[in-house]
Amino acid sequence: MSPRLRRVGERWLPWTAAWLLLAFLFVPVLVVVPVALTAKDYLSLPTTGISFQHFASLADWRAGWLPSILTSLGIALASSIVATGVSAAFAIGAWVYAGRWPSILRIILLSPLIVPPIIYAVGMVRLWSKLSLLDSWLGVTIVHVILAMPLAVLAIGASLSNLDPRLVQAARSLGARPPTVFGKVILPNILPGTIAGAILAFIVSWDEITVTLFITSRRLVTLPRKIWTSIADAVDPALAAIATVMLVVTIICLLLRMTVWERLAQRRS
Amino acid sequence: MFAMSSFQRWAFGLTVPAALLTICLYVVPILQVLALSFTEPTFGIGNYVEMFGSAAIGRVVRTTIIVAAVTTALTIVMSYAVAFALVHMRPGVRRVALFMVMVPFWVSVLVRAFAWITILRRNGVLNSALVGSGAIAEPLELVYNQFGVIVGMVHYMMPFAILLLYANLSEIDPRIIQAARSLGARPVTIFTRVWLPLSVPGLAIASLFIVIFSLGFLVTPAILGAGRVLMVAEYISVQISSTLRWGVATALSTTLLLVVGVLVAVAARSPALRAAFEGGRR
User: Are the Cβ atoms of A31 and B22 closer than 8 angstroms?
Assistant: First the structure.
């Protein structure tokens, strides 16, 4: 092999491949933006002019997008609050408790990360139809709490593993009662992890589709469910508009996290 | 339990709500799925006999295995290339590259599947561009077949794999690489004899996760396959929502759970994965 060819093989080929693959990940997602701006009423690139009519149809209550956004927001808020509370209690209890029980329970708690959600969906359809909780707020919220707990437990657990156990010993030796130790010593120290857990739990619920698909039908339409039916039914550009909104929100959140979060971390250290 | 200190009793009490929730509303429903596969519609192993004898289910299983295997192989190779480049980037450039990984990672799976339909469909973005430029005369069939499903699945899995592999690669001590270089090893030798062997734990964990996610994946195969690429999860979903064959659906679910369980049990022998699952305790 000539030196020049070798240089190409060792230096330029890996970099070109990596950037092409990054483009494969990033660029296709962006395609929803031009499609959302089309002036036609079917899925197409805006070749004959740009229009915001499909964004306007998102705001139209009768089109169903706005109600489903509010439904998803409500369920995600409720399940995030419950999942975070239960997970924080568990993580703190497991951190303090000496014995095998928490590590066994932890494996069961984290199993939704691995067990395919379709299996859980099959089980919940049976259970909820027996308890008449199909297509109900309560039924969906409970399922989302269960599915959100693993990530909340992981986030809060990560925060706890940085906590010095001597802090708890000091508080106890100074005569603090158990509720004081848990609420006023441990909890404030793991607040960042708890907030991260709450955000992750919110996102899990907001995005959940597989199980929700089976335990809801007409009455309770979450945003993912509405998107799912629209993809299956027709090719409405409003779909591209909602996808664009979700993409823009994701990008804004990521940029905020990359800038604000890092600045906060720098200031603290 | 009565010998516990008041402090330990409180700690135990804090774990109870999570325990009740997961056991009653996660473990029990799944155990019921396992039980139903032996009792619905009649008691016995009839569902499993039917499952292993059915040509339709055989096709579904074959499709699932092929798609999962191809997806995993492509995802791992492509993600490793990206993760390897990430480790070697200057911090500023790396932030841009990581951003390009994080956006698809956090965007809803439905938005991504929809984007791929817009691109790959018969009169979609790609076909219009190719026909318009004269590269091809007839639009290509790029979606609603195995090709489209695999493209969508690889795109879904890659960010996971990249982040796992990147975490693994950035833990490799740079002094090992320097040592290899100072001893006169060529870049290709350093890659095959140093980087690759040290990446084996990361590659193993990433492959495990991708295989498990792929085997039970519903959303992307259902949307990009549109019923023409029937995989296990979608087949189960059809059984419980349209044809109401609960026995077959639960038997397939049980088998899927068993396969996932065996894969995890095999992987649990690796110390890295065990640490990931048992971490968080003092």
Answer: no
What would the DSSP string read from start to end of A197-258? HHHHHHHHHHH--HHHHHH--SS---HHHHHHHHHHH---HHHHHHHHHHHHHHHHHHHHII
Asked if A114 and B264 come within 8 Å (Cβ–Cβ), the reply is yes
The answer to whether B15 contacts A90, with C-beta atoms less than 8 Å apart, is yes
Residues of B in contact with A114 (CB under 8 A): 212, 260, 264
ipTM of model:
0.90
**What whole-number distance in Å separates Cα of residue A115 and Cα of residue B257?**
7
A158 touches chain B (CB under 8 A): yes
Q: What is the pLDDT of residues A87-128, one digit of tens each?
A: 999 999 999 887 788 889 999 999 999 999 999 999 999 999
pTM above 0.80, yes or no: yes
Which residue, among B4, B8, B9, B10, would best test binding to A if mutated, counting the most A CBs under 10 Å from its CB? B10
Residue A122 is nearest to which of B99, B107, B240, comparing CB atoms? B240
Distance to chain B for A88, nearest Cα, Å = 9
Between A99 and B262, the more confident residue is B262
Q: Where are the domains of chain B?
A: 62-278
pLDDT tens sequence across A210-239: 999 999 988 999 999 999 999 887 667 889
Residue of chain A with shortest Cα separation from B96: A22
Using an 8 Å Cβ cutoff, are B164 and B203 in contact? no
Q: How far apart are CA B261 and CA B145, in angstroms?
A: 29
Interface of B with A in 107-126 (CB under 8 A): 107-119, 125
Going from N- to C-terminal start, the domains of chain A cover 3-28, 31-61+238-269, 65-220
Cβ contact, residue pair B15, A28, below 8 Å: no
CB of A227 within 8 A of CB of A71? no
Residue A1, pLDDT above cutoff 70: no
Q: Confidence class of residue A17 from pLDDT cuts 50, 70 and 90?
A: very high
The CATH number given to B62-278 is 1.10.3720.10
Mapped to the 3 state alphabet, what secondary structure does A243-259 carry?
Answer: HHHHHHHHHHHHHHHHH
Q: A240: which chain B residues are within 8 Å (Cβ-Cβ)? A: 114, 118
* Residue B248: per-residue pLDDT: 92
Q: How far apart are the first and last CA of chain B?
A: 21
Q: In which band, very low, low, confident or very high, does the pLDDT at B135 lie, cut at 50, 70 and 90?
A: confident
CATH superfamily assigned to domain A65-220: MetI-like (1.10.3720.10)
